[in-house]
Amino acid sequence: MSLDHALEEARAGRDAAEADLFEELRIPSVSTLPERRADVRRNCEWLDARFRALGFRTSITDVEAGGHPVLQADWTGAGDAPSLTIYGHYDVQPPDPVDEWTTPPFEPTLRDGMVYARGASDNKGNHMAALKAAEHALAAGGPPVNLRFLLEGEEEITGPSLPRYIRENASRLGTDHVLVWDGGFSPDGRPELVTGLRGILYVELEAKGPAVDLHSGGFGGNAPNPLNTLARILGELKGRDGRVTIPAFYDGIRMPDAGEMADWDRSDAFAETIRGLTGAAVLEGEGGYSAAERAWARPTLDVNGFVGGFTGEGKKTVIPARGSAKVSMRLVPGQDAMRILDSLREYVGELTTPGVSVEVRLLGAAPPVLAGADHVGATALASAFEAAFGRPAARLRTGGSIPVAIDFQEALGAPMMISGLAQPGAGAHSPNEHFSLDHYHRGIEALVRLMWSLGR
Length: 456
What we know:
Blueprint: H1 3-12, H2 14-25, H3 37-53, E1 57-61, E2 70-75, E3 83-89, E4 109-111, E5 114-116, H4 120-139, E6 146-152, H5 161-168, E7 177-181, E8 192-197, E9 199-208, E10 214-215, H6 216-219, H7 226-236, H8 268-278, H9 291-296, E11 302-308, E12 318-319, E13 322-331, H10 337-351, E14 357-366, E15 369-370, H11 376-389, E16 394-398, H12 405-412, E17 416-419, E18 434-436, H13 437-455
Parallel strand pairs: 3-6, 3-7, 7-17, 8-16
Antiparallel strand pairs: 1-2, 2-6, 4-5, 5-18, 8-15, 9-13, 9-14, 10-12, 11-13
Helix pairs in contact: 1-4, 1-13, 2-4, 4-13, 5-12, 11-13
């Protein structure tokens, strides 16, 4: 087995690697849409076939009734050598609004070195780079580490299948290293060694008023309007100063110390970089904190969707019978999602107006996670990034959430690395999501280097 040989295989196989990525991107594996359920399974089976062709032992497991399957793929040809477990997800977000895509979301299109497709950066580009790295390592005689892939189809819906699978099978899933390969580069273009993930509390508020939609002329001024009430509540949940107003929301928050923030760019220039990526005129947020701190170490509350009443073309003047809104809160170390949920429900009850009832339903939750960057795996990944990309990896937190990370950490107990390949401004969850093919190919080489480094 030879690192140089594996890298030669990777460089010679770039066209095939792109073809495989494009083929997977054509599968519309949208986990939240019932009509795409068969496509989600098809994507899982597509990956399963590729692992089996490489000599992996695989299993597809339906853990939860009505859920999406977990794919496990193992290669144990390195004998008593260390083991590396790689996590990714094959489900994607809905492509809506479809009319804002320049090209169809499930017809991958190459423009200026970027492949445009739903799932390109989140997470198919990442896990396909890992699969191809394994392929090239095997073509070179096999990597000096044992490999396990755990891929899920419920990351985008905070589903329970993989977390349950890990906890129920922890005794046989022992590993020396875990790579949570579901992220990207920092906003200023540096490879990341993620030291912390924000958690999430995701809820839906449903407001109900009159029994049926009413004529706003005949009943306006008397009938309670659930959309008015819902708008009032949503507006009250966060002040103009960026502070969330839910009682006890900020209780217990632990800010990172100076050592952890050594690689953080808290300058105005970094804030301008983030502003440029958003396309917004200005940034907003909590006063007294830098843009980096607001993105990585402070909690948030955002309205993700608001529906009700008549929203079609033309005119229809109604007082709607009901309306709903989806709200997400990103949480940081020290916050407890269930305590905040209880406080939110009580607070919404206080804000609700007469004649309107508002139910707060839990859609999903995951705690924040801290991961060190000073263990053997993290050092190896940093070196692999520097060799492949020519830039040292920065120790940073990230604002997103990877719900299963806590299950890896608590159930398996192995040192965890969190990172990924998506370039800044990749548009994950947005129209025209795209992924750098240069990052893809360099990322394959970085992962090959990681395998050889861990094998030493």
